[in-house]
Write a structure and sequence with these properties.
The complex is a heterotrimer. Chain A is an all-alpha fold. Chain A has 17 helices and 2 strands. In chain A, a hairpin with a 4-residue loop joins strand 1 and strand 2. In chain A, helix 7 packs parallel to helix 17, helix 9 runs antiparallel to helix 12 and helix 14 packs antiparallel against helix 17. Classes of the chains: A mainly alpha, B mainly alpha, C alpha/beta. Chains in contact: A-B, A-C, B-C.
């Protein structure tokens, strides 16, 4: 199947998914009062004061599907409602908070994957030897740590003890000023990227400094998944016939493991990595909260706490789109790595 | 029979799983003997509320009276973590059993009957699974009103889809087995077939997953409490106690670790509790993984 | 005929959870130069293990306990004790002087790499110097022939390549080229090695009667039929012109028509290359078609060994005779061998076959029979002789 056609087809799949998700959550919002639901249609602070007018205008006492249709119409016009939590339109809130979370996800995911693959491979190749046990203990320990506790501990040590060496937040106050000044162009609002694009060294260092603790916190907890998966995947791969053939060809054990076994073992890891990224991009609530790293996770959790319906709905939409996109990328990667899989889905 | 013996032997042989067993055993003992280890003071309202020794906000370091010290509001930390064990077990067992129950019912219906029922249930689980668990849980708790009970409800709602899927998958496998067809051929009703033949064989992986997820449940419950959505102030809950300690995370300049006992203690309990279950779980997974042939 | 492989007193034990299994029990066997020796036996007879033992690839929890396997290298003329060889020298032998073909070609090939890549791999490993010399030839030709701007521009690179290939030709694992190979940009300098390997690969594939060799080489294993895959695997095993080719049930998983072609191929290998073949099978018919000599194994021990004519015309060991009798023939009632396979954990004492043997005598359960010569090139381990 032609590549472009395939992508278009997959993107079209977004529609039924979004339909289902939004229908579901919209249905739940029906349990709330018209006043609360009115916030779904607001796009400015002034409108917030005239809720009865909104109710009137958008017919919030009409039947369910009519309302749903109206709301969908709104969405296509770019109006996702007003987020009471952060006092800005939901669409703007998403754009505002996404960069922080993306920054975190883009730094943490490769780190997690690389470390997980490395140790998973080692553990499988030396099964039941010290390396294996050590890796498994590390993984289980990381996974057993309460994220919030780890975060607090790290803050205690690196912020408290080391006198603000690795502080919370995204940037220190001085750098905040720099970043918001006229000389600094915020291309992506991802501070590290912007710093590079602006060729601004101090901002880059500052941003990195603020990233270290959150990334460590997230990575420690999540690396266990990849480690364990890689290990069991490698063990399965190492038991296959082609490994015996490779050895019978006289190949060095390192090449057998790294070239022959690992490539096959990576296949399931790719799917999981995709979901990992999606989960992180959806925001690591606790990490963001503890380190005051205001991203999607923080926004979504605040919205959930205050029952800010437009925000929750907007977030749900975002997650649905993200999921479909991630699935698409994962499927494409699959075909790159495993020649048995064809783009149209289905195995030869 | 020798399979069970083999399994038990593997569990004990492996130092990691042995450690897990020991840890869990210790926690079980603590939970059972909580009233003896940390007796509730006379006239105290509810054993699950931590007794206070004054009203000062500043935590006090460990002393003879308060073995682990006191946290903000002069709540005795020792009492809190000991009775918190009971809380933890309660939350874990309630959430897990209801989740598995729902999962069994819905998973069986989906897996056994297939068709429209299957599709509908699968789409519903898809929607639940696409949403980040913690945020969904937070929303549910907020909507109901924060309390430990809401946390349990929220966690159940978040967790059941995975189990429904898991059980459905297992049932799909078992459904094709010969003895099921034989039972049907003999005229057994669907219900009877499901309950007597399919379920007992399909259920093992899910039960194992459930016992392992206990650690994850406690972690999530603690996280929710930490965010202020769980147990009320002063309740014997590890997460809640950590939330208290948040303000005292960094001590005065010059002595940043001053209030370490308030922050570290509840966290350590959570860590070891979850660690025990995860160690056991990891060992279980290795044993039951059909790909790792037994030697 | 001179010996190629001499196996003496080989014992291989498997330490399983349930107990110790003697996969191979005190085995003596010779493989001669240029001959095709067949090992026939049921599952658990130890035939596959013998093959793996020669290559020292016995999997965990197995262990080669004792014995000796001597390899008489035709090229160097020396005798190598394979079981005492250092691992890196053993690796130089695997795939190179002694190679192996397995039963399931689908499982033997790595699904994520092309056929060509997998065959080239073994060429690049063991024939690196040869490939380097050929590459150098090509580059040198280009250097002397080339005229015009393009040639002049590429000149320095080609000179560099020539120098590199020369180095690899002298010393296949020289340091400088190895380092360069690791650096992505410079890796391109060595592309001719892969190119030469690829063209040799196509030649190898043609050699195993794959018609569209160039196209097959760029395909993945799952895109080929079983017969093609097996041919490719054989091509891979023959790539470095081994002195001994071990084939473990190579035709068992193929259908009968392909089987016939495959056997023809094996016969040709023997004739064309003068290599020895160790042909493992459970099928007597196949053995008779392809082998010069046949050895029969049961429960890890050798029962009988001799030339094909002797074995089929004068089968001596009761087990051999039972196997021959069991071959289905139209009109004849189907014969089976009574009893069950020897329990691997608790084998019968003395002669392993005695519980199922129609001519068993008391001494058969006490002591293990030794191999005795009963005719020219024909030995049996049985108290009947």
């Amino acid at each position: 199947m032609e590549f472009r056609a395939y992508i278009i087809r997959r993107l079209l799949l977004l529609i039924p998914v979004l339909f289902g998700v939004t229908l579901f959550i919209f249905g739940i919002t029906m349990f709330f009062s018209p006043g609360q639901r009115a916030t779904l249609y607001v796009s400015s602070p002034q409108q917030m004061r005239d809720l009865p007018g909104i109710i009137e205008q958008y017919g919030l006492d009409r039947p369910f599907f009519v309302q749903y249709a109206t709301w969908i119409g709104q969405v296509f016009r770019g109006n996702l409602g007003w987020s009471t939590v952060v006092s800005m339109p939901v669409a703007k809130a998403i754009l505002h908070y996404l960069p922080a979370t993306l920054e975190l996800a883009l730094v943490a995911t490769p780190l997690i994957i690389l470390i997980g693959i490395f140790f998973g491979t080692k553990a499988a190749a030396q099964k039941d030897k010290p390396v294996d046990h050590a890796t498994r203990v590390m993984a289980i320990l990381g996974w057993s740590l309460p994220t919030f506790w780890l975060g607090l501990l790290l803050m205690m040590v690196f912020y408290g003890y080391f006198r603000g060496f690795l502080p919370p937040g995204r940037l220190s106050v001085q750098m905040e000023v720099v970043v918001n000044s006229v000389d600094f162009i915020r291309y992506t609002r991802i501070n590290t990227l912007d710093a590079i694009l602006n060729l601004n060294g101090p901002v880059l260092l500052d941003a990195l400094r603020h990233l270290i603790l959150p990334v460590i916190t997230i990575s420690t907890v999540n690396v266990a998944f990849i480690m364990r998966l890689m290990r069991s995947s490698m063990l399965e791969s190492l038991g296959k016939g082609y490994i015996l053939t490779a050895r019978a060809k006289g190949l060095d054990e390192r090449i057998v493991v790294n070239k022959h076994a690992r490539r096959n073992a990576l296949i399931p890891v790719i799917t999981v990595s995709g979901y990992l990224f999606a989960a992180l991009a959806g925001g690591a609530v606790i990490t963001e909260t503890i380190f005051s790293f205001k991203g999607m996770g923080w926004w979504a959790s605040q919205s959930a706490l205050r029952l800010d319906i437009p925000s929750v709905l907007g977030f749900a939409l975002f997650m649905a789109v993200l999921f479909v996109l991630v699935n698409l990328v994962v499927d494409i990667l699959y075909t790159r790595v495993d020649p048995r899989v064809r783009l149209g889905g289905g195995v030869q | 029979m020798s399979d069970w013996k083999f399994m038990a032997r593997q569990l004990v042989k492996n130092p990691l799983s042995l450690a897990g067993l020991v840890i869990i055993a210790i926690f079980i003992i603590i939970a059972i003997f909580a009233p003896l280890i940390a007796p509730t003071p006379e006239g105290h309202r509810s054993p699950y509320m931590i007794p206070r020794d004054g009203y000062s906000a500043t935590p006090q370091p460990p002393s003879e009276e308060h073995i682990f010290g006191t946290t903000q509001g002069q709540y005795d930390i020792f009492y809190g973590v000991i009775w918190g064990t009971r809380s933890a077990f309660r939350v874990a067992l309630v959430v897990m059993s209801i989740t598995v129950l729902i999962g069994i019912v819905l998973g069986s219906l989906a897996g056994y009957f297939g068709g429209v029922i299957d599709e509908v249930i699968m789409r519903v689980t898809d929607i639940f699974l696409a949403f980040p668990a913690l945020i969904l849980a937070m929303a549910i708790v907020s909507a109901i009103g924060p309390s430990l009970k809401s946390v349990m409800i929220a966690l159940t709602v978040v967790w059941w889809p995975s189990y429904a899927r898991l059980i459905r998958g297992d049932i799909l496998q078992v459904r094709e087995e010969d003895y099921v067809e034989a039972a049907r051929g003999l005229g057994a009703s669907s219900a009877r077939v499901i309950v007597r033949h399919v379920l007992p064989n399909a259920i093992y992986p899910s039960l194992i997953m459930a016992s392992l997820d206990i650690g994850a449940v406690v972690l999530s419950a603690a996280a929710l409490s930490f965010l202020g959505l769980g147990a009320p102030e002063g309740y014997c809950d590890w997460g809640q106690m950590t939330e208290f300690a948040r303000n005292w995370m960094v001590g005065p300049p010059g002595d940043p670790f001053k209030y370490w006992y308030a922050v570290i203690t509840p966290g350590v309990f959570i860590l070891f509790f979850v660690l025990g279950w995860n160690l056991l779980g990891d060992a279980f997974r290795d044993i039951f993984d059909p790909r790792l042939a037994r030697r | 005929m001179k010996d190629l492989i001499r196996i003496r007193d080989l014992t291989v034990r498997f330490y399983t959870y349930e107990g110790v299994v003697y996969a191979i029990d005190d085995l003596d066997l010779d493989i001669r130069q240029g001959e095709t020796l067949g090992i026939v036996g049921e599952t658990g007879s130890g035939k596959s293990m013998t093959a793996l033992a020669i290559l020292r690839l016995i999997p965990y929890p197995g262990k080669i306990e004792s014995g000796s396997i001597v390899f008489c290298d035709k090229d160097s003329g020396g005798e190598l004790e394979l079981l005492k060889l250092r691992e890196d020298r053993m690796r130089a032998i695997r795939g190179n002087k002694i190679s192996m073909v397995f039963q399931e070609p689908g499982a033997a090939l790595n699904p994520v790499y092309t056929i060509g890549d997998q065959i080239s791999e073994v060429l690049l490993l063991h024939r690196r110097h040869e490939l380097a010399y050929r590459a150098k030839q090509r580059v040198d030709n280009l250097l002397s022939d080339g005229s015009g701007f393009a040639s002049a521009a590429k000149r320095p690179f080609r000179q560099w390549q020539s120098r590199l290939y020369h180095k690899i030709g002298e010393e296949p694992h020289a340091l400088e080229p190895r380092i360069l190979n690791r650096i992505p940009l410079f890796r391109r300098l060595l592309w001719r090695l892969k190119d030469e390997a690829a063209s040799l690969t196509v030649d190898m594939l043609k050699g195993v009667e794959i018609s569209d060799a160039a196209r097959v080489a760029i395909h993945y294993p799952h895109e080929l039929s079983g017969g093609m895959k097996q041919r490719a695997v054989i091509a891979m095993a023959l790539a470095c012109s081994p002195e001994l080719l071990i084939a473990d049930e190579p035709t068992t998983s193929l259908d009968v028509t392909i089987q016939a072609q495959m056997l023809e191929l094996f016969r040709r290998i023997k004739v064309d290359r003068g290599a020895s073949v160790l042909f493992i099978t459970h099928n007597l018919g196949v053995a008779s078609e392809v082998c010069d000599r046949v050895a029969v194994m049961y429960a890890g021990r050798l029962c009988e060994v001799g030339s094909v004519e002797e074995m089929f015309l004068h089968p001596s060991h009761p087990y051999t005779r039972a196997l021959l009798d069991a071959v289905p023939m139209p009109g004849k009632e189907l014969q089976t061998i009574p009893g069950a396979l020897a329990d691997a954990l608790n084998p019968p004492p003395g002669c392993r076959f005695h519980p199922r043997c129609p001519s068993a005598t008391p001494i058969c359960q006490q002591e293990r029979p030794k191999l005795k010569t009963v005719a020219k090139d024909h030995m049996v381990a049985c108290y009947l002789f």
